[in-house]
Specification:
Distance between the termini: 42 Å
Order of helices and strands: EHEEHEHHEHEHEHHEEE
Helix content: 25-40%
CATH topology: DHBP synthase
Number of helices: 8
Structural class: alpha/beta
Number of domains: 1
Strand order of the largest sheet: 1-8-2-3-7-4-6-5-9-10
Largest sheet: 10 strands, mixed
CATH class: Alpha Beta
CATH architecture: Alpha-Beta Complex
Radius of gyration: 16 Å
């Protein structure tokens, strides 16, 4: 199934419908400020396992999509310096690797001590995760051999992935640029991948 949402003013009824799918162990595809992404509720063990299967069990590129900085601080350890850096750059096309808090389920971490977090500059994604009330466990739809249109055109994304997800959210054409990936879990910040955002120090 595919539903349409407009970034300028996401329809509250449709947003509530999407969140309801997520609350009932659903997996969706939704727009971000980078590539379209798969998402499910962090609190749904069944959906987390489904998403891992879709992406491949060894996929390490899973992150938590949060609706604001306080939401990040619930699930990751954020000191003052980290908070200031996050505040300068979020919402935006960044994924930050932080030390995970005890609120992140073991099934998600799988013996890792860190978790990627992001707050996208996309009104649709933020409306969905805010309505859901918990972060989304998420990973981009992009694959190395993908034709660009299968990561940017919601109708082609639905054609490719519609049989394995419960809902595709059409938020218009997406970008084909990943987020900038920054590791803040060590002594010094480290840029692991250059992407759509230029980090403001």
């Amino acid at each position: 199934m595919i539903v349409k949402l407009y970034p300028q003013n996401p329809n509250e009824r449709v947003v509530a419908q999407v969140a309801d799918v997520l609350r009932h162990d659903g997996v969706i595809v939704y727009p971000t400020d980078g590539v379209y992404a798969f998402g499910c509720s962090l609190h749904s063990t069944k959906a987390v396992e489904r998403l891992k299967t879709i992406k491949g069990k060894k996929e390490s590129g899973f992150t938590l999509l949060c609706h604001d900085l306080s939401n990040i601080a619930d699930y990751a350890r954020v000191d003052n310096a980290t908070f200031k850096l996050l505040k300068r750059n979020l919402p935006g096309p960044f994924t930050f690797v932080l030390k995970a808090s005890s609120k992140v389920p073991d099934k998600v971490l799988e013996r890792r001590k860190t978790i990627g977090v992001r707050v996208p500059d996309n009104a649709i994604a933020l409306a969905i995760v805010r309505e859901l009330g918990v972060p989304m466990f998420t990973s981009s739809v992009r694959e190395t051999d993908d034709v660009v249109e299968y990561t940017t055109d919601p109708e082609l994304i639905a054609e490719k992935w519609g049989a394995v997800v419960d809902l595709v959210v059409d938020g218009g054409y997406g970008m084909n640029v990943p987020t900038t990936l920054v590791d803040l879990s060590g002594d010094e910040p480290e840029i692991l991948r250059e992407g759509g955002g230029e980090l403001r120090w």
